[in-house]
Every structure is written in C-alpha cells, then in structure tokens.
Amino acid sequence: MTAIPLLVCDDSNMARKQLIRALPANWPFRITQATNGLEGLEAIRAGAGQIVLLDLTMPELDGFGVLAALREEALTPEVIVVSGDVQEEAVRRAKALGARAFIKKPADPIQLAEALNSLGVEVPLTTAPDDHHTSQLPLPNVSFRDAFREVSNVAMGRAAELLGRVLGIFIKLPIPNVNILEVGELHMALADAQRGQRLSAICQGFIGGGVAGEALLIFHDSEIEDVARLLNAQEDESAQLEMLLDLASIIIGACLNGLSEQLNITLSQGHPLVLGQHCPIEDLIRINQRRWKRTLAVEISYGLENLEIHFDLLLLFTEDSVPRLRETLDFMIN
Questions:
Q1: Is 293 helix (H, G, I), strand (E, B) or coil?
Q2: Is residue 187's pLDDT more than 80?
Q3: DSSP string, 126-194
Q4: Is 70 exceeded by the pLDDT of residue 133?
Q5: pLDDT at residue 201, as a whole number
Q6: Residues 236-267: pLDDT tens digits?
Q7: Would the pLDDT of 26 be above 90?
Q8: Are 153 and 70 in contact (CB under 8 A)?
Q9: Measured between alpha carbons, how far is residue 209 from residues 206, 267, 299, 328 in Å?
Q10: Please, which of 32, 73, 258, 311 could form a disulfide with 158 given CB 3.0 to 4.6 Å?
Q11: Rounded (to 5) percent helix, strand, coil in the chain
C-alpha cells in the first residue's frame, strides 16, 4: 500500500507526539513534523503534506496564516485543524480558509479516524494506536515544560471559548509561557511587564490531588471602562468590581477545569479575592510578596480582537506541586 505523506504541524512536542499516537494503527503514513507555520509551509511545498494536521496557535506563523498562504499559493493539501482554540469563530474562520475538519485538543483517535475518512482515507473507526505502530515513528522527546505548556494551552483555549461567548467577541490567544521562578524573578517579570500602569488584580486559590496554588488575573485600569461598555455594565466602582470578579470566575474557573480534566485531578477552587485595586504593580508585589515563594508560573495574556484590551492571567503553582505534576505528565507522555 502506497504511503501517504502526512504533516504534523504544531509547536508543541507533546501535541505532535499525542497526534502521532492517535493515528490509526499500522496505517501507511509517511510522517513529517514541523514546529511552526513557516516550517509547515516549506514541508507542504516540498510535497511532504498531502494531509496536514495543523495547530492554530504557533510562533512565526500561526495556523490561520498557513491556511491563508496555502490559498494564496494555490496549494491544495487536505487540512485537518487540531487546536486548543475551540471558539466557534476559530472553527468558522479555519473552515472558511479551507480546513476540511476541526478537532479539539487533545485529539481523540476515533474523531481523527472519522476526519481522515471524510477526506477519503479509508480507515477503520474502531482502530486505535498500538505500541508496534508508534514505535516505528519518530516520536519527539517531551520535556516537563513543553508538556505543561501544552496542557495549559488546551485549558487556555477552553477559557477563551467561554470568555468569547460572554463578551461576544473573538479572543486572541498567545502561546503560554511556563517557567519555574524564584520569587524575585516573578516580581521582576511582573514589574517589567506592567511598569507605570495602574492595575486591579483578582486572586483565586486552588487545591486538590497533591496540587495547590493561586490564579492571579490582572486588569489594566485604563481598559476596565471599555470592558464595562462591552458588557453594558454600570460605570460606578462597585459595579465594575463585581464585573471584574465575575470575569475572574469565568476565566480562572474554565482554565482550572481544563487543567483538571486533562490531568485527571479535582481542583477545588476558593472564592475570588481582590488583591489590589487601582494600584501600581510595585504595590501589588509588595502587598503580596509573602504569599509567593518559588513557583511554577504559567503566564497567559488574552487579547480582545480589534480592541486594546488584555487580561493577564498567572497560574502560580507551589513548589511542592511540581513532583505531582511531573508524575502525572510523565504518565500522559509515556
């Protein structure tokens, strides 16, 4: 049986490994991997992508950019988008640009087989990956940081989908930044990013399954009135504070639920609390410096399309949580 050139284009080693493992067992794909959209385009031009499994959120050139370039260059691979960005508008835009199917991350093997069948690749829907199949493929090595960035990416996408429905606007997603930081490094990162701006911050604790930490959502005061207008909220301070608490519950809750689902742990969430209101970042750091020790930090900045509005989300995991997270991710990877 002739091998079919298949390209897996995703910046995450973990996502590529999961996708390769999800492919139908013993099916004759000749697999090429690309770590960003520019590499993906080069591989497609070279004939390595008759079928393309394409992520949307990538550096250099994102999935939307790849789809637009394929149309502009009259290249016609069969593209299946596999993404953590599950907003209805993201699905609509991807299909409008030529994607044949859209699968949410992490890809389910049955759904992937169905999508391949829709392209005319006849694969049994009951088939599943096995050790013989995957051992023959060039599976990437996955670090803890890469793995945790990928599960954060999926959780971030779930939160964006809910936030986008509440606000009625498309949410622009970044690539999450994952680092283990000493308390001083965290303070410097926050101060450098927000210097000179007045901020309001909401904190929500979480704990469960040997994992604990705090989620910190930072709002720029200059943008709060714009958000209030989007939601038709009143302009007095108490109404705006209630609005921020509601938004924090939506964003933090959806993100933590996305992590819980992937890591198979139950995270109990505390009530959102105001950490600082209308204060410089330096004051926010000074007020809360005893709360934050050495931490595993996930940084996410949600942007609202066509508006100068950003929500900065920090997930801060205690140092004691890292061994449990490593154990869970190792099980997922191997």
A1: coil
A2: no
A3: T----HHHHHTS-PPP--HHHHHHHHHHHHHHHHHHHHHHHHTSPEE----EEEEE-HHHHHHHHHHHH
A4: no
A5: 84
A6: 888 888 999 999 999 999 999 999 999 999 99
A7: no
A8: no
A9: 11, 7, 22, 10
A10: 258
A11: 45, 25, 30
Note the pLDDT of residue 220.
84
**For 35-44, 76-85, 268-277, which range has the lowest pLDDT when averaged over its residues?**
268-277
Q: What is the pLDDT of residue 125?
A: 65
When pLDDT is cut at 50, 70 and 90, the band that residue 134 belongs to is very low
Q: How far apart are CA 177 and CA 301, in angstroms?
A: 10
Q: Which amino acid is at 268?
A: S
- Structure token pair of residue 70: 């394929």
| Residue 123 identity | V
Distance, in Å, from the CA atom of 191 to the CA atom of 91, rounded to the nearest integer, reads: 36
Packing angle of the helix pair 183-194, 281-288 (nearest 10 deg): 160
Only one residue has tokens 């609202």, namely 304
CA separation for the pair 53, 143 (Å, rounded): 22
**Angstrom distance (rounded) from CA 24 to CA 124:** 8
